[in-house]
Design a protein that fits this description.
This protein is α/β, with parallel strands linked by helices. It has ten helices and 14 strands. The protein binds nicotinamide-adenine-dinucleotide and uridine-5'-diphosphate-glucose (UPG). Homodimer.
Length: about 325
């Protein structure tokens, strides 16, 4: 049987494809290459360029490749962009996920893993948040993902179909073997932006908001290494295949770092004292959100092995250097 990975040419999806290939699975990637890269897809995977909203295409892939599981990463991911373009986010993240779930149900795909987000909680504070906490997303991005969770819940109740929605906290770092990393053009993610600044690709980094009600006035997030996140998907897939029931589970480490702490970590690990300026708050940002991940550990035996901010930053910097070499070659 084969796993369909949507968004497999993107940052997290490309790590997942390697994780599946390393585990001996057959993989088909569906990606429209809006923010992903064809070269980021492991050569062992079948690559199909197309849109997850194309139900006929997905239906064909399911039957032609004998797909029994879908891991759905494809989507639009930038919180402030979702504030500026809410309908674009509801289309790509909610409407097209509906089409994909429909194709999965009609095609008899039983296992579905969805990239959800800590953004579904809204401002949860600096104490670890559990999955049963109220969901009050503060951005269209968070709402677009929460709506997809609700569609999955209703579809699982009505059909022979089970899902795990993994609520990722802030994903960072790169494959320790250097095979892939975050390559997004014009990235807005903190560790990526700070790594680019350390390597001189930007002349400064701006801290977006210093007047939050947090210990040092900057936002607090729980940064999870992308390889631990890929392992969580593999564990969740084994859980579903063993008959596990549908659920939503947090993926994070349970420690929050402020923006200032992250910037300091990038300076420490790179050994470069780059320029940092302070600016206003960014639209859609929540002050703090940190994961309680006891459920993922208990339900699918997830055991993170990269829980170390400096190690996360170090792989992000190594990938940034590899990207510079690639760009010089191309
Ligand atoms: N990066 C994070 O910190 C983070 C945190 C929480 C959740 N997520 C979720 O994880 C998923 C992957 O995020 P990422 O960081 O790898 O982003 P990314 O932009 O690198 O990857 C997304 C991929 O999906 C593809 N894509 C987008 N819309 C598509 C469509 N309609 N049809 C086919 N392909 C499409 C893009 O080309 C890209 O390759 C997203 O759903 C995102 O919301 C990410
Ligand atoms: O140049 C920068 C970039 C970011 N930040 C701040 O750093 C924090 C983290 O921002 P970012 O790395 O952009 O992540 P989030 O906005 O928290 O969102 C990420 O993490 C969410 C889960 O928490 C996911 O759902 C989203 O897809 C993903 O983009 C925020 O306070 C930003 O304001 C800065 O101060 N300067």
């Amino acid at each position: 049987m084969t796993v369909l990975v949507t968004g497999g040419a993107g940052y997290i999806g490309s790590h997942m494809v390697w994780r599946l290939i390393d585990g001996g699975d057959d993989v088909v990637v569906l990606d429209r290459l809006s923010t992903g890269f064809r070269w980021a897809v492991a050569p062992e995977a079948v690559f199909v360029e197309g849109d997850v909203g194309d139900e006929a295409l997905v239906g064909r892939l399911i039957s032609e490749h004998g797909i029994d599981s879908i891991i759905h990463f494809a989507g639009s991911i930038v919180v402030p962009e979702s504030v500026a373009d809410p309908l674009g986010y509801y289309l790509n993240n909610t409407v097209k996920s509906r089409a994909l779930i429909d194709a999965a149900v009609k095609g008899g795909v039983e296992n579905f893993i969805f990239s959800s987000t800590a953004a579904v909680y809204g401002d949860a504070g600096t104490e670890p948040v559990v999955e049963t906490a109220p969901t009050f997303p503060l951005s269209p991005y968070g709402r677009s993902k929460l709506m997809t969770e609700l569609m999955l819940q209703d579809s699982a109740a009505a059909h022979d179909f089970r899902y795990v929605a993994l609520r990722y906290f802030n994903v960072a770092g790169a494959d320790p073997k250097g095979r892939t990393g975050q390559s997004t053009k014009g990235a807005t993610h903190l560790i990526k932006v700070a790594s680019e600044t350390a390597l001189g690709k930007r002349d400064k980094i701006e801290i977006l908001g210093t007047d939050y009600d947090t210990p040092d006035g900057t936002c607090v997030r729980d940064y999870i290494h992308v390889s631990d996140l890929a392992n969580a998907h593999a564990d969740a897939l084994s859980y579903l295949k063993a008959g596990g029931t549908s659920l939503a589970a947090n993926c994070g480490y349970g420690h929050g770092y402020s923006v200032r702490e992250v910037v300091d970590a990038v300076k420490r690990v790179s050994g470069i004292d780059f320029t940092v300026v302070e600016g206003p708050r960014r639209a859609g940002d929540v002050p703090a959100v940190v994961a309680d991940s006891a459920l993922a550990r208990a339900k699918f035996g997830w055991k993170p092995i990269h829980d170390d901010l400096d190690a996360c930053v170090s792989t992000a910097l190594a990938w940034e250097e590899a990207l510079s070499r690639r760009n010089q070659r191309d």
